[in-house]
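Bumping with the actual sequence this time:
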Amino acid sequence: MKDTIKQKGLRRQLISSLKAKGILNETILDVMTKIPRHFFMDPSLVNFAYEDKAYPISANQTISQPYTVAFQTELLEVSTFHKVLEIGTGSGYQTAVLLGLTPNVYTIERQQSLFKQTQRLFLQLGLRPKKQIFGDGYNGLPNVAPFDRIIVTAGAPEIPKPLMNQLAIGGKLIIPLGANTQIMTRFTRTSTLVFDKEEFGQFKFVPLLENKI
């Protein structure tokens, strides 16, 4: 796998465009500058890797638009000591960004072809999540909970209650909520039964599937 001078230059241009669109967290931008997005894409699409657009990957899924990845990650407010649960490994690109912020990343993927693909890719790239699981992300990981941060990378028509239950007090959950178009939503757990809710505009995600495995 190669990361050429040209690709590095295109990546820097992409990061500059993310800044212009309002992504201001320098740590996240620095992490994304170092991650070759083309490694996570279909070989036929590598020439488009540094456009700020979503593209198809296998299993009828997508690699998210870089702006969306940066935006969700910024809302998550990750520190190095946080334990993070990612629902939807997908291409592995968002996982790589999270691993640039904390080593404590747990990620779940329900599509077996994607799970195996990212498993191989992570080995090649030396990326080591705490756990990479093939399973139903809707149910989270109750045996490992609570989590300081939870990020959902698919559109959910309603809030998955298991994920809310697995959020630590003081923790944050970022989830795109809605059927056809989603509202990016952040929940902060302030006590056992109380969650503060904030909304951050419309996005478009593939759907979060439940209990089909």
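The tokens above came from a reply further down the thread. The chain has a mean pLDDT of 93.
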